[in-house]
Write a structure and sequence with these properties.
Strand order of the largest sheet: 3-2-1-4-5-7-12
Structural class: alpha/beta
CATH class of one domain: Alpha Beta
CATH architecture of one domain: 3-Layer(aba) Sandwich
Number of helices: 12
Shape: globular
Number of strands: 15
Order of helices and strands: EHEHEHEHEEHEEHEEEHEEHEHHEHH
CATH topology of one domain: Rossmann fold
Helix content: 40-55%
Radius of gyration: 20 Å
């Protein structure tokens, strides 16, 4: 099989690429920049931008299926990048895939598409989408996911139809992460990490190798007449963790103490409102230290039912939280020399 992986230089994208190569498949990575590791694996690299319909068409030509993992993430208050990458970029990939006769697309969504600014505990995919969002990231991911799922069944050249699904992994973590874990460690080291709320909130997470496995399993199950076609799925370890206990364990791996400073949710919410107002007024481009969306993410419980993924494509996490943390500790101690 010939696969395209968008965001192939990303954390999840690289793991998907490695599994495809190990399985003997031909892999093309669609990226904004080169990554030596991809060429060492024998991956064909197509440099381009999701915001360019022409680049997306060039990337999709000649492949059988697409893993669309690339996205604009973060809590920036700049709307344009989120809409250009998450919405327009996904539309470009869909249009390019249809024009090129690509048969299957597995889209990497986000559980935040179900987030209406309140705790989500034991929520299933049937909960749907809220009417309003606190940030542009979940809003644009919801718009993109709806496009992907609506595209399921679209007629392709040759008489076949496009098959699509969306996976919603929650807080991907593990060795080689260049975003979540390093940011937590940096904020702790500089004294800027504060517990938000009472510290009792429980979160779903997913170890990166489990997330990659789920993508390949969903792709394999994405066939005519399957329940996977046109569906969305929450993905997690199936074992929610206490947010702040988890963070404290990660910090201990690099010789840092637990989070001592705290702020109430009410005050974090107010600070988030103030930051959003001030940053927009002053047109500050960098991410604010707090937003209302971030306050809810740090203070509320978010865990989801994953029965649907288990039922429809047999996803059960192969690597437990404890084993994943052991592997993460080994990696972090080698990176931070501790």
């Amino acid at each position: 099989m010939r696969y395209l992986v968008t965001g192939a230089t990303g954390f999840l994208g690289q793991h998907i690429v490695e599994r495809l190569v190990a399985g003997g498949h031909t892999v093309r990575g669609f990226c904004r920049h080169e990554l030596p590791e991809l060429k060492q694996l024998g991956v064909e690299v197509v440099l381009g931008d999701l915001r360019s319909a022409e680049d997306c068409l060039r990337a999709c030509r000649g492949v059988d299926a697409v893993f669309h993992t690339a996205a604009q993430t973060g809590i920036s208050l700049r709307k344009r990048p989120f809409y250009e990458v998450n919405v327009d970029g996904t539309r470009h990939i869909l249009e390019a895939a249809i024009a090129s006769g690509v048969r299957r697309i597995v889209y990497t969504g986000s559980p935040s598409v179900a987030d209406a600014g309140r705790p989500l505990e034991g929520v299933a995919e049937s909960a749907g989408y809220p009417e309003t969002y606190l940030a542009d990231y979940p809003k644009t991911k919801a718009i993109a996911e709806k496009m992907v799922l609506r595209a399921n069944g679209t007629a392709l050249p040759g008489g076949k139809t496009l098959l699509t699904c969306s996976l919603r992994p929650r807080l991907i973590w593990g060795p080689r992460d260049r975003n979540l874990i390093p940011r937590i460690i940096e904020r702790a080291r500089t004294g800027h990490l504060r517990r938000v709320g009472d510290g009792s909130n429980r979160l779903d997470t997913i170890y990166v190798e489990n997330a990659a496995d789920a993508h390949l399993m969903a792709m394999e199950a994405l066939v005519d007449g399957s329940a996977v076609a046109g569906s969305a799925y929450f993905l997690s370890q199936g074992d929610p963790v206490n947010c702040w206990e988890f963070i404290d364990r990660v910090l201990a791996m690099v010789g840092l103490g637990p989070v001592r400073k705290s702020i109430s949710f009410k005050n974090a919410w107010r600070l988030g409102m103030l930051c959003e107002w001030g940053y927009r007024l002053l047109r500050i481009q960098r991410e604010p230290p707090m937003t209302r969306f971030l306050a809810t993410q740090l203070a509320f419980s978010y865990w989801f039912k994953t029965d649907r993924a288990r039922r429809d494509f047999g996803f059960v996490p192969a690597i437990s939280n404890e084993e994943g943390l052991r592997r993460l500790q080994t990696y972090l101690r080698s990176v931070y020399k501790c």
